[in-house]
Automatic annotation (TrEMBL), chain B:
Its cofactor is [2Fe-2S] cluster. GO terms for cellular component: cytosol. This is Reductase. The keyword Iron-sulfur applies. Belongs to the adrenodoxin/putidaredoxin family. Keywords: 2Fe-2S, Iron, Iron-sulfur, Metal-binding. The keyword Lyase does not apply. One of its GO terms (molecular function) is metal ion binding. GO terms for biological process: P450-containing electron transport chain. It comes from Pseudorhizobium pelagicum. Residues 2-106 form the 2Fe-2S ferredoxin-type domain.
Length: 407, 107
């Protein structure tokens, strides 16, 4: 048995096209659209010899694979490593990297804490914070939108919502980036991320314990489930860790990408200004258009088929969510950003039982930012070049100088 | 294909043909039935595909999914014993003719 990146190598079925490409090369991660277009054109599944994986980039198949948790499991890891054959770098997540029935139990606890009703009380605070931050940015000639808004907002509201006593902006943002880089191969992005682990991981673990969380927060709700015997104390700590893995860097990326979309499409920003109730649909379109999480993998847990093509047990399939979100077969004119498209069924939050459990919180955060923006900012303009940051699973801006002209 | 009949809160009836294995939420969206929003796309993370199963059909449809009850608490309209999240009702041949009542609003 030959291994590569912690999973078994395999020979693909003869009818699956072979494509000698590296989806994790720096130029692809920075500007992935041409890779996605060719991935979709070559077929429903493509074999990539460099990492011995299949890749799926068309909407229908990607959605089918992602929705079928019994054939395509998460418990063997959602990156390149197959947990069946080796220990992952951290104890596996008990919600992301797990299958039913264990998943059902933890998912229920998290979903309850993050339901629309459970988080509705945060709306006013999110809005006030957005007002405060944006008001200050309008005063400035120009600003660095990733640090000063995209990071500043979630770091101001999210740790507080979770009830964290300890908050450390750099470590919170970097932990997310690290977890997502770890899903790729052992390239420089993963190695650089892993080099931060000795500093960040102990801090994260410490910040997730019961005594470091205030009573009224989301974290306390998870520990309440431990008190009720639904999960163990150790599981509660692991679930609070999931808030921090998946709840910061992702929304930072979402806000940065939303600003980029609006600065690049002034006509669409005019529509949002004319009707601030488009804030939520606008965010859905930002998600479809930019896909903050661009790729997650699944592992075939049995010999099976996708689109009539044979897939052997143990095969890693890279699901290019960002590519599915740009598939013309599904969206007609995917290259156009339209704030009122209402792209129901986009794959940016995944699909099925593993669909993002924090999506309501992400929507509430972006609704606050985009509503305040529409109400107070006349124009969103670039004040310099936007630069993308390569990451093995996240497509994010590294920096973006912007200018807000007051209304 | 299995026939599903949607009845809006003001009494408008729409009959659609849906594929077995799909779910009622997706059948509504695919056929432009008003009254289903489905913000989360079917991950049981919102309650914007809330519906009422016609009383004649509740036994055939079966019980709520694990965790569905919690999420129904977020529904915009009254939750009744017949309330379901339509993304959790899988379409199968025994449901041919299923009648689904839609609430007045989802948000």
């Amino acid at each position: 048995m030959n291994m590569i990146e912690g999973h078994m190598t395999f020979e693909p079925s003869a009818d699956i096209p072979v494509w000698d490409v590296d989806p994790y090369a720096e130029d692809v991660l920075i500007d992935p659209a041409p890779y996605y277009a060719e991935l979709r054109a070559r077929g429903p599944l493509v074999y990539i010899p460099k990492w011995s994986v299949l890749a799926s980039g068309r909407y229908e198949e990607t959605r089918d694979i992602f929705s079928d948790h019994s054939r395509f499991v998460s418990s063997r890891g959602v990156g390149l490593n197959d947990f069946k054959y080796g220990e992952p770098w951290r104890p596996p997540s008990i919600i992301l990297e797990v299958d039913p029935p264990d998943h059902t139990k933890t998912r229920k606890v998290m979903a309850r804490a993050l339901s629309p009703k459970a988080i509705a009380g945060l709306k006013e605070e999110f809005r006030r914070t957005a007002e405060m931050i944006i008001e200050q940015l309008i005063e400035r000639e120009s600003f660095e939108a990733i640090a000063d808004l995209a990071e500043a907002f979630p770091v101001a509201v999210f740790p507080k919502a979770v009830g964290m006593v300890d908050s450390d902006r750099r470590r919170l943002v970097d932990y997310g980036a690290m977890v997502f880089n770890a899903l790729g191969p052992d390239n420089k992005f993963r190695r650089d991320a892993m080099a931060m682990a000795p500093d960040i991981v102990p801090w994260i673990t410490g910040a997730c314990t019961r005594d470091r969380l205030t009573k009224g927060g989301l974290g306390a709700l998870i520990y309440a489930a431990a008190d009720d015997g639904e999960v163990t104390e150790a599981e509660a700590a692991m679930l609070v860790r999931s808030f921090l893995s998946a709840g910061v860097d992702t929304t930072v990326t979402g806000i940065g990408s939303a600003l980029w979309c609006l600065a690049s499409n002034p006509g669409e920003y005019e529509k949002l200004k004319a009707d601030a109730s488009l804030a939520r649909p606008c965010f859905e379109e930002v998600l479809r258009f930019t896909s903050p999480v661009h790729t997650f993998a699944r592992t075939a847990n049995q010999d099976t088929e996708v689109a009539g093509l044979r897939v052997a047990e143990g095969t890693k399939i890279l699901c290019a969510l960002a590519s599915a979100n740009l598939d013309p077969q599904k969206w007609g004119d995917p290259e156009i950003f339209r704030v009122d498209r209402k792209p129901v069924g986009h794959m940016a939050f995944g699909a099925g039982i593993h669909g993002c459990v924090g999506q309501n919180l992400a929507r509430l955060e972006l609704e606050a930012v985009l509503t305040v923006l529409a109400e107070t900012v006349e124009r969103v303009e670039f004040a310099g070049e936007a630069v993308w940051r390569p990451n093995n699973a996240i497509h994010a801006l590294d920096r973006m100088p912007l200018r807000f002209i007051a209304r | 294909m299995t026939k599903i009949i949607f009845i809006s809160s003001d009494g408008n009836e729409t009959a659609v043909e849906a594929a077995d294995g799909d779910n009622v939420m997706r059948a509504a969206l695919a056929n432009d039935v008003d009254g289903i929003v489905a913000e989360c796309g079917g991950s049981m993370m919102c309650a914007t595909c809330h519906c009422y199963v016609d009383e004649a059909w509740t036994d055939a449809v079966g019980a709520r999914a694990d965790g569905e009850e919690d999420m129904l608490e977020s529904a915009a309209c009254e939750v009744r014993p017949t309330s379901r999240l339509s993304c959790q009702i899988r379409i199968r041949p025994e449901l041919d003719g299923l009648i689904i009542h839609l609430p007045e609003s989802q948000t």
